[in-house]
């Protein structure tokens, strides 16, 4: 497991709080489990996903849309499994 800066981890957890309950529920499960085991490249892919608008992010997590970036899609696959 890679160790990340504790301040950056707190920032990422805060950014994971979204405006849509459905998305929040999935991200809470992700933060409680797989998030702590991310490799640096996966961490960066998740950071990029957090730049998406809430509605776009929810569409992707719910399977209504996909992304072209394979690293981001790897995180989406994890999110969809939760």
Automatic annotation (TrEMBL):
Intracellular or extracellular location(s): Cytoplasm
Keywords, comma-separated and alphabetical: Chaperone, Cytoplasm
Lineage: Bacteria, Pseudomonadati, Pseudomonadota, Betaproteobacteria, Neisseriales
Family in the record: Belongs to the SdhE FAD assembly factor family.
Protein name: FAD assembly factor SdhE
Alphabetized Pfam families for the sequence: Sdh5
GO BP annotations listed: succinate metabolic process
Coiled-coil intervals, chain numbering: none
InterPro entries (alphabetical): SDH (IPR005631), SDH_sf (IPR036714), SdhE_FAD_assembly_factor (IPR050531)
Xref: PANTHER family: FAD ASSEMBLY FACTOR SDHE (PTHR39585)
GO CC terms, sorted: cytoplasm
